[in-house]
Specification:
The chain is about 50% helix and about 15% strand. It has about 400 residues and is α+β, with helices and mostly antiparallel strands. Strands 3, 4, 5, 6, 7, 8, 9 and 10 form an 8-stranded mixed β-sheet that branches. A 4-stranded antiparallel β-sheet has the order 2-11-1-12. The longest helix is centred in the first third of the chain and has 44 residues, at about 1-45. The two termini are about 15 Å apart. The model has no long low-confidence stretch (mean pLDDT about 85).
Length: about 400
């Protein structure tokens, strides 16, 4: 019967050790995923998006189509909005734009014709995104002008329609020539725009995506609703109430919403990634806690079952440091096995992490090394309690009770 009880205890011990190994392996995988996600978030916060969101306030205005039916009326109310915002204290630059960088709306993708370049019937014309802005947009948002000019007072309704194109668009379709003066059409040839400037590229849609091809058209020639952008010398959020009041002073019924700074817009664009990183970190923390509890529990049970053995070792002259090393070695074996299996699992699962990482590889050695060191440290700490209890065993008591 005693032999049967011993076998049962051995089976139970092996099962518990296997469970701890599995817990450590799962912790490695979750910690690696969390580490990659957090490091990607850090890399994304350092991305140069091609503009300067600091000190800029944005508010969306929507003039009534019934009240401002004619293009001239919409252009006039746009001019009044700009003039009113310039009077606000601390404002250094004001612009109107159909969309803001990393915002959610106001963008239109167009097939684009280039004068002098025929498109075959079965070919897809060049694609680019059209954005409607005033000439001060580039200065207000901090998009550099690479060549040519932006829009000025001469670019009005009835005049020659003009466009500013992004650097990526210029490089794609005019790699060996100067696009200034070239003509493009966003509507199949009904309207032609003359290129007057080249602006820097902006990551308009996402910080982890390359800039897309863009051409900007003058708000004064394509007036409508959109966003008012104000660059300020002080905290731009303090201008929110005054800017809203300035809009309502022009038209009390004009809706104003989405009042926020461009820094807030940038942070909001990272919200899905931030949520993913938070959840992975939470799950990894729970897995780490469970693994640490499991290591401590298994070693504590092992010490209780081996009390007589430890007493005999001490009675025969074993040093307490040797007993401590014995228990720590048992815990280290479980942790090391779990680390090996977990690392293999993390490397295998890296193929599914491509969409979650940015600026680092899904098999980033530094992240895996940090995870392994963290778990090794947790394993040592979890093992110390049972190991110290083992060294406190009294050989006489252990032999008498055994």
């Amino acid at each position: 019967r005693a032999r049967g009880d011993g076998k049962a205890r051995n089976r139970r011990g092996r099962a518990e050790r296997a469970l701890v190994v599995a817990q450590v392996a799962v912790s490695v995988v979750l910690l690696a995923a969390a580490g990659l996600s957090v490091r990607s978030m850090v890399e994304l916060t350092r991305v140069d998006a091609g503009y300067k969101p600091e000190q800029v306030l944005s508010l969306r205005v929507t003039p009534s189509r019934e009240r401002y039916r004619r293009q001239e009326d919409r252009a006039a109310v746009g001019d009044r909005l700009v003039a009113a915002m310039r009077e606000l204290p601390g404002v250094t630059s004001v612009a109107l734009a159909g969309a803001v960088p990393l915002g959610e709306d106001g963008r239109m993708s167009h097939g684009m014709l280039i004068a002098g370049r025929a498109v075959a019937p079965n070919d897809v014309p060049p694609q680019a995104e059209m954005q409607i802005v005033t000439g001060e947009y580039f200065n207000t948002v901090g998009v550099p002008l690479m060549k040519g000019r932006t829009f000025d007072e001469h670019d009005r309704l009835g005049g020659e329609e003009v466009a500013v194109i992004s650097r990526s668009l210029a490089r794609r379709y005019w790699p060996d020539s100067d696009p200034i003066g070239a003509r493009i059409s966003p509507d199949g040839g009904d309207t032609w725009l003359r290129v007057v400037g080249i602006a820097g590229d902006v990551r308009d849609h996402a910080l982890d995506k390359d800039p897309i091809d863009v051409f900007y058209v003058a708000f004064s020639q394509t007036p409508g609703g959109g966003n008012v952008l104000l660059r300020s010398t002080a905290d731009p959020s303090l201008l929110a109430k005054r800017a809203t009041a300035a809009v309502h002073a022009i038209d009390p019924d004009m809706p104003v919403d989405a009042v926020r700074t461009l820094l807030e817009v940038r942070l909001n664009s990272l919200a899905p990634r931030r949520l993913t990183a938070s959840l992975l970190t939470l799950f990894a923390g729970l897995a780490l806690l469970i693994a640490a509890t499991g290591i401590g529990g298994v070693l504590a049970f092992s010490v209780s079952q081996r009390t007589r053995e430890i007493g005999v070792r001490l009675a025969l002259g074993a040093q307490r440091g040797e007993v401590l090393a014995l228990i720590l070695r048992q815990g280290g074996t479980m942790v090391a096995t779990g680390l090996v299996l977990g690392t293999l699992g993390a490397v295998w699962l890296a193929r599914f992490m491509q969409g979650l990482v940015f600026g680092i590889g899904p098999r980033d050695p530094a992240t895996l090394a940090a995870v392994c060191l963290t778990l090794a440290a947790v394993g040592v700490v979890a093992s110390l309690g049972p190991a110290r209890r083992a060294t406190s065993v009294d050989p006489v008591v252990a032999l008498r009770n055994g």
